[in-house]
Amino acid sequence: MFNAIVSADTLGTALDSVSALVEECTIHLNEDGLAIRAVDPANVGMVDLSLDATAFESYEADGGRIGVNLSRLEDTVGMADAGQLVHLELDEETRKLHIQIDGLEYTLALIDPDSIRQEPDIPDLDLPANVVVEGRDINRAVKAADMVSDHIALGVDEADSLFYVDAEGDTDDVHLELDESDLIDLTPGPAHSLFSLDYLKDMNKAIPSDGEVTLELGEEFPVKLHFEIAEGEGQVTYMLAPRIQSD
Amino acid sequence: MFNAIVSADTLGTALDSVSALVEECTIHLNEDGLAIRAVDPANVGMVDLSLDATAFESYEADGGRIGVNLSRLEDTVGMADAGQLVHLELDEETRKLHIQIDGLEYTLALIDPDSIRQEPDIPDLDLPANVVVEGRDINRAVKAADMVSDHIALGVDEADSLFYVDAEGDTDDVHLELDESDLIDLTPGPAHSLFSLDYLKDMNKAIPSDGEVTLELGEEFPVKLHFEIAEGEGQVTYMLAPRIQSD
Amino acid sequence: MFNAIVSADTLGTALDSVSALVEECTIHLNEDGLAIRAVDPANVGMVDLSLDATAFESYEADGGRIGVNLSRLEDTVGMADAGQLVHLELDEETRKLHIQIDGLEYTLALIDPDSIRQEPDIPDLDLPANVVVEGRDINRAVKAADMVSDHIALGVDEADSLFYVDAEGDTDDVHLELDESDLIDLTPGPAHSLFSLDYLKDMNKAIPSDGEVTLELGEEFPVKLHFEIAEGEGQVTYMLAPRIQSD
């Protein structure tokens, strides 16, 4: 059983954070809210999303799960005007999701969850450095790095208490330093890893520019990015595996 | 003889309603205003436009006709800023249309009307159902249907006094119901027909979202859509032939 | 030695006027400001730009020159928000330009000036007609001409004290006349020349629509276009060679 009403903005933002990595996913219809975990086909990027029942206007669920095509679901939600409500109701017999937006009813065929790539276990890493930064600074770093390279290094300079971003191109380089006055918070620790810019660009699209992002970093380790959506009633964690250093 | 001054907005809107279906058309320069009738190459969609002399700042004509390439004429009118006036003058000898916009003179070569697809006779059908709806609801229905299918069914539910739109895709369906509280007016009658979405999408582009549209409908019959342009001093009628039901 | 701080808007506008014609250029780092002269590969269009030291927040230079790839430099400057400052510093040893924008450092590899197409001598022509016009009228003329032709004629009608623009297409023609009431200033003289529209379209992109443009014209002679940027602290001159009249 699943029957919920939610603002189109909230649902759309939550789905966008997952569709940055995958086209299909399994949604867990838990009693306390929706939960999605997914990993991209190359096993490089993972997402863990939860959208609490309190983020909904009304929410009833009893623990099932459904498989969805994200772009079809997002397009449907995108039919709503800003601020309009979306009514979701699962028809258990036909395995279809009924989506109602002000008189418009969309019937979405679901996908068998067993046919979707298996949900990842997101490892519990104890990463030594912790950086809290505004979303717009992630955006700036990703855009600048993209001008010169396909890779981006994220690191912490413990001596100078700096978070830095490096991208080295064939001819040009980009370097961004954010010190404690630029950062919201910094727990220094040994950290320097290289990442694929393609993944960070996709993740960046889902990061709210006016929100806080917490990065957990280590040396040649994955990065974890945490941020809130839906005014704190939803949580997104991305994990991105490092590239082997090219130099 | 043809010599007229009209706001670029009014003329542009009028031409857009015709170019939704055809690239070339014959314009009748009647004493009481412009009139255009056209049918698309597949004989599926027809348009009947009249733009009254009162919609013009000044208007003089004596009943001739000219053939025009619509996109060239629209591009020229599009050179004007919002609210600017367009001066149209026919040179009978050279068979060219002189278009003046604030010091800019465009000379448009005309097309021999006899070389343009013949103007249709738009049949006078006595359709049983009549629905008056806001343009934005047509827009919403067309966009939603387009997400799942190439076809759209329009119909009236006489029992519940509803106008409905149905689109059935391979996996997903869309259904929109507008009852008497959503509609401007409804004259119920037996009505259900399937139409090609491509045509309705093109027609929809010309329908003002904040205006009224009257639909005349029957069972397996064409639909007629009527709406006003130019603050009531222009009238557009579209007629769209039904598709044979696929089920 | 070169070390300067300038608003991103000012630097971006200056570079755009040169990149309209060439992809690489030599920038002269003069004591009193930057200077660039360049000619397109076909030797048809030339640009002469100066950006005075007073247009900078701070400016120090001692007369060297650097070769740059314009699109890479423009992309970097485009990373700045409106009103942000760009800090430029030349590293003489590595021959790299360090570009800093609020914590972001971009290292741009320079090009050997000797490998860049030689800078033109812009001839000192004594052209008989002089027209001062608003930038938006150039824009309007270029857009209208582009609808019908690849060429555009610019001329002065001495008898009627008019500046005119003519474009003749295969079927349609465009004619624009600006008389003394439309122009900011006019010094009539014998002037009529045909130009390639492609070049004028590129130059037009760099012309501020709300600024003044001075055109110097003759009969079958190049046109010179002068306008100011950076609130009068930068000057751009374009020279465009005429096409041989086709009729």
Automatic annotation (TrEMBL), chains A, B, C:
GO terms for biological process: leading strand elongation; regulation of DNA replication. Residues 7-99 form the Proliferating cell nuclear antigen PCNA N-terminal domain. Residues 122-242 form the Proliferating cell nuclear antigen PCNA C-terminal domain. InterPro entries: DNA_clamp_sf, Pr_cel_nuc_antig, Pr_cel_nuc_antig_C, Pr_cel_nuc_antig_CS, Pr_cel_nuc_antig_N. Keywords: DNA replication, DNA-binding. The keyword Cytoplasm does not apply. The keyword DNA-binding applies. GO terms for molecular function: DNA binding; DNA polymerase processivity factor activity. PANTHER family: PROLIFERATING CELL NUCLEAR ANTIGEN. HAMAP family: DNApol_clamp_arch. Belongs to the PCNA family. This is DNA polymerase sliding clamp. It comes from Halalkalicoccus jeotgali (strain DSM 18796 / CECT 7217 / JCM 14584 / KCTC 4019 / B3). The lineage of its organism: Archaea, Methanobacteriati, Methanobacteriota, Stenosarchaea group, Halobacteria.
